[in-house]
Write a structure and sequence with these properties.
Length: 128
Amino acid sequence: MNRPAALRHAALLLLLLTLAACTQPLPVDKRDYIGHWQGEGVRLVIQTDGQASYERVKDKRRMSINGPTHSFTTDGFKIGIGPLSARFKVSSAPAQTDGKWRMTVDGVVLTRRDLGEQLQKNQPSIDL
């Protein structure tokens, strides 16, 4: 392996180790954010270990980001690390209404999906 390729591999390994080390559980007061959320063209998954996956399709363009969830403020949170992170504006925090959990992120109303219920109904995976 030539030197530039070895340096790229070492940098990638370092980045992956850094990402793994940055994972922290969500703060107790933010546990309502945990779950599989879906809205118009949006899918957001926030895990108990703080990892998140966000995907949005709008005007035939797809944007996605994966990484740790962090920097919660009164009006949002971030997903990712450093310059590879994105801020999400939460205009309506997770709340249960009529038996369903909803929140509004970046202007899109998201509903938390009960994946157990979906599997019982033998439905296909959630499409965007």
